[in-house]
Write a structure and sequence with these properties.
- The chain has 26 helices and 16 strands.
- The strands form 4 sheets. Strands 11, 12, 13, 14, 15 and 16 form a 6-stranded mixed β-sheet that branches. The chain has a 5-stranded antiparallel β-sheet with strand order 4-3-2-1-8, with helices on one face.
- The chain is globular.
- Residues 1-6, 115-198 and 470-487 have low confidence and may be disordered.
Length: 620
């Protein structure tokens, strides 16, 4: 095969095409959304078409030797079949060989990026018949041996969380759970083709020290966060948010691996080395697909922090865009402060926000750092915006303090906009507060509209606006493709339930119980499922969950909405409305999804439900 074809392989089967380099599956002009593992599975099957691939081989290649159960593979195959629009009992593409593995049976054509097969490929192509289907084989494709395919080595662990993450986490996850059912049904609708050539995607990783004793995690993350904020202001770039890259703080992190996991084209990686009083800084922009380095830079003198960030931001943008305008330069060189100490305190506060696991005391400590930064620089607009964000996060709890935290968040965000009305983060805070606490839908729409005007491609804007417009499927799909964070098992379980895919729902429920370390309940659920079916088994889990919630009812952080959901799913309307009224009293954030959350479907015909939605401000 010609070198060009080797670096940009494409496959065609049926009405589908695979772009290997860009990891895209397309049906005609539509892009078919696939998770990374599902794409890895498809590529292995297609590149070994006609061959039986054993389960153990597939698990070894796709999960890179990690311990996973056969059920993970079965679910991934199920997802792939749904994406291809086929049924297991009437396969066009994937045949299950019971007790052994899977075989791809469709005719496959391999071609280069320009759509033509290479000459050698045309000469050496062979075919053979498998059953009633013709299988085409190409050079270098050995049917009896599994080919090596580069796949991400990390697996994503599922951990259930009970917290609500402002603008990033559970409010978005709750939306995704609600929206995923629609996405699964509508994934075949026409979507714009998205390839690395149509826009530039980049992840900016935390800086890495050359020696472990030199570590300064807040500064390492702070450099990345600052560059993310600047680059996100360029509309032509799609930049992974700080929430997505916070996990790459290990000094041993492989930039290429991180880039593949984040599904970006480019990675900006930096490092530093301390030598006495001097700090040597280095950075490079890497093409994830071919590992080439577009540029590298080093600062061996005592570098000014802000000048170094200016240089990296401008050099990165120059490498990815054909032109660099004056407006681009204005965005890229926009400093939040010129005060180094204020900047360091800001980094401590921001790092605390992303890493404190939403412990109230640590959040309050992060708020103190930001307050100190503002005291040193009263015009530090980003410090105001993120102090507002932290107060909004603290206000996600229940109880009397919720009102005061939201008042502070509004006040700080408005102050930030007085200093800079183009600050997206401040608009997002005010929009979030307007609908999640004040239930002022019109004001929320104004702030989200302004944020989208400032940068419609900003990941945080797409994610937060999707959380607001939970019924807008295109925004939900956009959030799903941008977030790259696995929903908790609880919401995966509920999504399967909403789709009436009860076998998968039962498996997800068992995984959920395993993470909760509820062995006795898991065994009881399993026995009940075997004896009486899924409906009875879910009842066992829900009753145990409700019992635990009732024990927590006297605690300050108890969320009555959790109890209302459990009662609704169990069919106990009176108890569900009792807890819903308590949630209304505390302005619990989750009530904003009352009109679209399927967990309350059992209550919609009750006049009490209509009255509650009217009081919250939903249109009747």
């Amino acid at each position: 095969m010609a070198a060009s074809a080797a670096t940009n392989r494409h496959y065609r089967f049926g009405e589908f095409q695979i772009d290997v380099k860009n990891r895209v599956l397309a049906r005609g002009s539509e892009t078919v959304p696939l998770t990374p593992k599902t794409f890895d599975l498809l590529l292995l099957l297609v590149e070994n078409s006609g061959s039986l691939l054993k389960k153990d081989e597939l698990i070894e290649r796709i999960w890179d030797g990690a311990f996973v159960e056969d059920g993970n593979l079965a679910r991934t195959v199920s997802f792939l079949r749904k994406a291809l629009g086929e049924r297991r009992k009437d396969p066009e593409y994937i045949v299950t060989v019971a007790g052994h593995g899977y075989r791809f049976i469709a005719q496959v054509e391999e071609f280069s990026g320009d759509g033509a097969q290479s000459t050698a490929q045309q000469q050496m192509t062979t075919t053979r018949v498998v059953g009633d289907r013709t299988i085409t084989y190409f050079p270098g494709r050995v049917p009896t041996k599994l080919r090596a395919v580069q796949v991400p080595s990390k697996t994503v662990s599922h951990r259930r969380t009970k917290r609500l993450v402002l603008l990033v986490g559970a409010s978005g996850i709750a939306l995704l759970a609600v929206s995923l059912a629609f996405v699964l049904r509508e994934s075949k609708r026409p979507q714009p083709t998205v390839t690395p050539d149509s826009f530039k995607t980049i992840a900016v990783l935390p800086s890495r020290p050359s020696a472990a004793e030199d570590r300064d995690p807040a500064s390492e993350f702070g450099l990345a966060a600052s560059l993310i904020n600047r680059l996100s202001g360029i509309r032509s770039l799609t930049v992974r948010p700080a929430a997505a890259i916070i996990k790459y703080t290990s000094p041993d992190q492989d930039p290429i691996e991180a880039g593949r996991e984040q599904q970006v084209n480019y990675v900006l990686a930096s490092s530093y080395r301390k030598s006495g009083e001097k700090v040597v800084l280095a950075a490079q922009l890497i093409n994830v697909h071919d590992r080439s380095v577009l540029w590298s830079d080093t600062c061996e003198e005592q570098c000014n922090t802000f000048a170094w960030q200016d240089a990296l931001a401008e050099k990165t943008t120059r490498s990815l865009l054909t032109t660099l305008t004056d407006s681009h330069r204005q965005v890229l060189t926009k400093h939040g402060t010129e005060n180094q100490r204020a900047y360091d305190l800001f980094n401590l506060g921001l790092y605390g926000w992303y890493t404190n696991k939403y412990d109230t005391e640590r959040l309050q400590k992060s708020a103190e750092y930001l307050q100190q930064a503002i005291a040193l620089d009263p015009n530090y607009v980003m410090a105001y915006a993120w102090l507002a964000t932290i107060n909004c996060g603290l206000g996600l709890g229940v109880g009397a303090a919720r009102k005061e935290y939201n008042r502070k968040a509004d006040e700080l965000a408005r102050k930030a906009l007085e200093l800079d009305d183009t600050l997206i983060q401040a608009h997002l805070v005010l929009g979030f507060s307007a609908y999640s606490y004040h239930w002022d839908w019109g004001r929320a729409e104004e702030h989200f509209k302004r944020a989208r005007e400032l940068n419609p491609e900003d990941v945080e804007v797409a994610r937060t606006y999707a959380a607001y417009l939970a019924s807008l499927i295109e925004q939900a799909r956009k959030a799903l493709t941008m977030v790259y964070a696995t929903p908790t098992l609880y919401f995966i379980w509920r999504c399967y339930e909403q789709q009436h895919i009860y076998e998968e729902a039962y498996r997800a429920l068992q995984e959920l119980l395993a993470t909760e370390k509820e062995k006795a309940t898991a065994e009881l659920v399993s026995r009940t499922y075997a004896a009486s079916g899924y409906e009875k088994a879910r009842g066992v889990y829900l009753k145990r969950k409700l019992k635990d919630l009732e024990k927590q009812a006297q605690q300050e952080k108890f969320n009555p909405l959790d109890a209302a959901i459990a009662c609704s799913l169990l069919g106990d309307r009176d108890e569900a409305f009792r807890w819903l009224e308590k949630a209304y009293e505390y302005h619990v954030q989750g009530l904003i999804y009352l009109n679209v959350d399927p967990e309350f479907d059992n209550l919609r015909s009750d006049p009490r439900f209509t009255d509650l939605t009217r009081r919250i401000g939903f249109q009747q």
